[in-house]
Amino acid sequence: MTDRFETHSRADLPAGNGRRDTPIQMTDTPDDRRPTQRVEETPRPTVQPTDNATAEGTGVTGASDRSLADEGTLIEARDLSVYYGDDQALRDVSIEIPENRVTAIIGPSGCGKSTFLRCLNRMNDLIDDVTVEGELLFAGKNVYDDDVDPVVLRRHVGMVFQQPNPFPKSIYENVAYGLRVQGRTDDLDAKVEQALRRAALWDEVNDRLDESGLELSGGQQQRLCIARAIAVDPELLLMDEPASALDPIATAGIEDLIRDLSEEYTVVIVTHNMQQAARVSDYTAVFLTGGELVEFAPTATIFENPDDQRVDDYVSGKFG
Ligand SMILES: Nc1ncnc2c1ncn2[C@@H]1O[C@H](COP(=O)(O)OP(=O)(O)OP(=O)(O)O)[C@@H](O)[C@H]1O
Question: Compositionally biased, Polar residues: which spans (predicted)?
Answer without folding.
Answer: 45-55
